[in-house]
Amino acid sequence: MASSDERAKLLRISRGLDRLNNPCQLCKQRGAISSKTHFAANFGLAFTRTENHLEGYFCGPCIHKKFLLFTFINLIGWFGIVSIIKVPMFLLSNIAEYEFAIRAMLRKRKQRLALIEDLLEKDAQARRNLSSRGS
Ligand SMILES: [Zn+2]
């Protein structure tokens, strides 16, 4: 049976490779999830309004942070004629994007853990074969 040390080491290596191959476009500290995320924010006051869009491949922590920020901007920026229509649309589409991203994060985590278990199992099998051949 593989030790939890070995498992933690493989997890670290896997995360490091992920960061190199597929870095988050915002922080570059972690690997990004495989699907593109798009958040939109509207800030309106009477007849002026600004719209912000953020789209790309991001990591989990960045997605959580940006979702909170964009939701906050939308919630305080709906005072306007166009804004009152746009804000609910943006809030809903952001929630949908966020849910999709969380599903992708969980899927990725599950796949990574399954891959590590598989590797450890193959390693243990190879060691058993070697020791049986040696005796
Ligand atoms: Zn990030």
Describe this structure in words.
It contains three helices and three strands, in the order H-E-E-H-E-H. The protein has one domain (4-134). By secondary structure, it is an alpha+beta fold. A hairpin with a 1-residue loop joins strand 1 and strand 2. Zinc ion is lined by residues 24, 26-27, 29-30, 58-59, 61-62. The chain crosses the membrane at residues 67-85. Keywords: Membrane, Transmembrane, Transmembrane helix.
The main β sheet shows up as: 3 strands, mixed
Tally of separate helices = 3
Helix percent reads 55-70%
Radius of gyration: 22 Å
- What spatial form do the alpha-carbon principal axes imply? rod-shaped
Structural class: alpha+beta
Low-confidence stretches: none
Number of strands: 3
> Could you tell me how far the N terminus lies from the C terminus, measured between alpha carbons in angstroms?
21 Å
For this entry, what is the oligomeric state of its chains?
single chain
Keywords: Membrane, Transmembrane, Transmembrane helix
Quick synopsis:
Helix content is 64%, strand content 16%.
